[in-house]
Amino acid sequence: MELKGKNALITGSGIRLGRAIALALAAEGCNLALHYHHSEEEVREVQIEADEAGVRAEIFQADLSNPEQLQQMMHAVAAAFGHIDILINNAGIYPKGKGMDTTSELLEQVFNVNLFAPLLLTRAFAQQLPEGFPGKVINISDAKVFRHQPDHFAYRLTKNGINEMTALFALELAPHITVNAIAPGIMLPLAGNEDADLQDLAERRIPLKRIGSPEIIAENVLHILHQDFMTGTVIRIDGGEWA
Ligand SMILES: NC(=O)c1ccc[n+]([C@@H]2O[C@H](COP(=O)([O-])OP(=O)(O)OC[C@H]3O[C@@H](n4cnc5c(N)ncnc54)[C@H](OP(=O)(O)O)[C@@H]3O)[C@@H](O)[C@H]2O)c1
User: Fold this and answer.
1) Ligand 1 atom showing the smallest separation from residue 109 Cα
2) DSSP secondary structure of the chain
3) What per-residue confidence (pLDDT) applies to 195?
């Protein structure tokens, strides 16, 4: 797909991976629907950088665990842009806890944000895409689900669900819409622990001996968007950690 002039919605676009993805799309000439939940100041900075790149960028706030807010956001995006061509399901939460520690309230919250919101957004995206227009969905998953470990129980369930949903929607929405996923390994220290030095951990756990970066994920998003014969794939970008 030629990206110049296309309209892209990126969830969680104010910070970290979402921010890098949004700015990479702006550099390719995409107009941006920038979603955020709490990071208002940060998303305004992304909007300014997108303006400087010469593309249109509008900001949309929504708690994606709330289906009504999600639908209202999609209506607002459609009113502002007419339609969107690209959906990047990036927003997510990463709570700790094994299965026996995970309350039903936590399960519900994680499923709402990490799985049901991408599902509802993909459906709304497919419904709003005008007939004959190609569409692209990219889901941000996680490479850690390629190997079993009992940590982050609810999160793992949802990211496995995202991988399955990627394949199912790829089949259902073909041939006009492609649906793919990127499964990152460690790209950044955990939020709130940004100064952590992960080099030791990388030496021990990652065959390529370094962590990744948000820009690496953004490059791979662009790569997928340029592919027109690829759908239903989950690409692991993790330096070999979960191979
Ligand atoms: N960072 C990594 O190394 C890594 C590794 C593997 C997978 N991933 C995946 O990559 C994606 C981005 O992760 P990240 O580390 O860059 O970001 P992050 O620090 O986990 O931030 C999550 C993003 O999700 C949004 N969000 C959280 N709860 C929300 C809600 N209820 N409604 C709407 N938005 C909500 C936040 O918006 P606000 O900030 O506006 O509140 C934020 O932009 C996630 O899906 C994550 O699972 C990341």
Assistant:
1) 31
2) ---TT-EEEETT-SSHHHHHHHHHHHHTT-EEEEEESS-HHHHHHHHHHHHHTT--EEEEE--TTSHHHHHHHHHHHHHHHS--SEEEE---------GGG--HHHHHHHHIIIIIHHHHHHHHHHHHSPTT--EEEEEE--GGGGS--SSSHHHHHHHHHHHHHHHHHHHHHTTTEEEEEEEE---SPPTT-TT---HHHHHHH-TTSS---HHHHHHHHHHHHH-SS--S-EEEESTTTT-
3) 85
